[in-house]
Amino acid sequence: MSLSSRLAKVSYRNRPTQTSVPGESLKEMQQKLKEEREAKRAQLDGRHDYILSIVASCLGLEKSDVEDATLEGNQIERMEQFFVAEGLPHLMFFYQDIEPVEGAAAPAPSQQPGRRKKSKVFVTDGGM
Questions:
Q1: What are phi and psi of 93, to 5 degrees?
Q2: In a domain? residue 17
Q3: Has residue 6 been placed in a domain?
Q4: pLDDT cut 90: percent of the chain above it
Q5: How far, in Å, CA of 88 to CA of 80, rounded?
Q6: Is 128 in a helix, a strand, or coil?
Q7: pLDDT tens digits, one per residue of 43-97
Q8: In a 3-state reduction of DSSP, which class is residue 48?
């Protein structure tokens, strides 16, 4: 048995197992995420609106799709760091089409009718 195959077996054995989440806990998590998104949405102002409109126009997407994508993670915080004096010198927006999950019953809200891919926009300061 080679070293690489032994390492692969060790890695496989030490991989954490996924625990099933009770339905109520999943609903609670989804509700919490929705509340966090709405709290972030409430923080958006005219500066955000202007930038998101420009990005949407350049990408040929709806502004609401770009806004929804930027509400994920800490992307709004990056935009806030750009707006402060002595903050980030620039922002970079990356666009990617993501294949929808095969088991999904309904298309995602960001999908346009007749479109098979979901739009995803990422905001970064360009650093590693």
A1: -115, 130
A2: no
A3: no
A4: 29
A5: 9
A6: coil
A7: 999 999 999 999 999 999 999 999 988 888 888 899 999 999 999 999 999 888 8
A8: helix
Residues spanned by the domain of 118: 23-124
- The count of structural domains within the chain is 1
Does 74 fall in a domain?
Answer: yes
* 118 close to 108: Cβ distance less than 8 angstroms: yes
- DSSP β-bridge partners for residue 96: 120
Could you tell me the two tokens for 13? 């054995």
**Predicted local distance difference test score (pLDDT) of residue 118:** 73
Give the N- to C-terminal CA distance of the chain in Å, as an integer. 38
Among 30-34, 40-44, 50-54, 118-122, top mean pLDDT goes to 50-54
Please check whether residue 90 lies inside any domain of the structure.
yes
CB 97 within 8 A of CB 120: yes
